[in-house]
């Protein structure tokens, strides 16, 4: 050890104060063998010399860049310009990845906000005819032999892929009922598949897709769940079709708009039903 007097050393408090850290941080650095005092006096006081001051400058700055203790220790033992450049480049790549992920999350949140705010004042119990452009649907087929548990499992898998695929989160998932079942008193609740609207992007190559063709669509929003209102809604839609000399040329699509995300009471849900129609 150099022949120095106590005046040449920093106390733990003095060194900690220089860098705005706590004395407990210095104790921790000593415990993990990152930075140890140059001298511990007989009274237990810990003293740091110029080399510890310089090392701590490195430690504090690298920690501010969120380098791990292990990375910093390895660098202190093997420091050099090339080594530092490599460390900084690796950390930069990690940060860029974090930025990309957070931007995707931010975009997803914006999508949910816009989607939610757009449906705050939808007209209820009013049947409308609207021209829709072609949409791409992600489909999870269902079997008649599927139990209630099977359907829940398939729905869970469907929504998880929809929610997390590249953070293109589109919260709304619905189900498809074929026209025959829709008009049958004992099968109006039997769905043939779950669906979600998806963008036409390379990230969806591996999912089962269906094109929802452009054309004229009958649309209706109503309060409550589909299962609570199916017979009533079916009667209202069929009457509208007959009065306007229209007929359905597609399956029936049912999509909860306000669901368990917003209320525990199914009677307070807002549900959308739509189908492609043509003139007779």
Keywords:
nine-stranded antiparallel sheet, 280 residues, alpha+beta, 42% helix, 12 strands, 8 helices, three-stranded antiparallel sheet, rod-shaped
How would a textbook summarize the main sheet? 9 strands, antiparallel
Order of helices and strands: EHHEEHHHEEHEHEEEHEEE
How many helices does DSSP assign?
8
Question: What's the Cα radius of gyration?
Answer: 32 Å
Approximate helicity band: 40-55%
What is the strand content?
Answer: 15-25%
| Count of β-strands | 12
User: Termini separation (Å)?
Assistant: 100 Å
Which residues form runs of ≥5 with pLDDT under 50?
165-170
Main structural class: alpha+beta
Global mean pLDDT: 87
Q: Please state the overall shape, judged from the principal axes of the Cα atoms.
A: rod-shaped
Topology:
Elements: E1 10-11, H1 12-19, H2 23-31, E2 39-40, E3 46-48, H3 50-64, H4 69-77, H5 81-118, E4 128-132, E5 135-141, H6 148-164, E6 174-177, H7 179-182, E7 193-198, E8 209-212, E9 215-223, H8 226-243, E10 246-248, E11 252-258, E12 270-279
Antiparallel strand pairs: 1-3, 2-3, 4-9, 5-7, 5-8, 6-7, 6-11, 9-12, 10-12, 11-12
């Amino acid at each position: 050890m150099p022949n120095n007097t106590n005046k040449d050393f920093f106390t733990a408090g003095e060194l900690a104060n220089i860098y705005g850290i706590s004395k407990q941080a210095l104790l921790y650095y000593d415990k993990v063998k990152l930075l140890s005092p140059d001298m511990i006096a007989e009274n237990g006081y810990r003293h740091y010399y110029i080399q510890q001051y310089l090392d701590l400058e490195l430690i504090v700055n690298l920690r501010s860049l969120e380098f791990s203790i292990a990375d910093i220790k390895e660098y202190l033992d093997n420091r050099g310009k090339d080594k530092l450049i490599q460390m900084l480049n690796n950390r930069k790549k990690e940060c860029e990845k974090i930025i990309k992920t957070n931007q995707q999350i931010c975009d997803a949140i914006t999508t949910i906000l816009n989607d939610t705010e757009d449906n705050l004042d939808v007209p209820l119990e009013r049947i409308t005819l609207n021209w829709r452009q072609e949409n791409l649907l992600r489909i999870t087929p269902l079997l008649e032999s599927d139990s209630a548990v099977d359907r829940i499992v398939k729905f869970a898998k469907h929504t998880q892929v929809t929610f997390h695929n590249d953070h293109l989160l589109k919260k709304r998932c619905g189900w498809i009922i074929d026209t025959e079942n829709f008009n049958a008193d004992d099968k109006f609740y039997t769905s043939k598949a779950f669906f979600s609207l998806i963008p036409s992007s390379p990230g969806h190559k591996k999912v089962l897709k269906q094109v929802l063709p452009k054309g004229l669509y009958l649309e209706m929003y109503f309060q409550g769940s589909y299962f609570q209102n199916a017979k009533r809604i079916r009667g209202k839609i069929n009457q509208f079709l007959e009065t306007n000399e229209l007929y359905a040329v597609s399956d029936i699509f049912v999509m909860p708009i306000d669901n368990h995300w917003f209320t525990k009471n199914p009677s307070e849900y807002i549900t959308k039903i739509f189908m492609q129609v043509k003139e007779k």
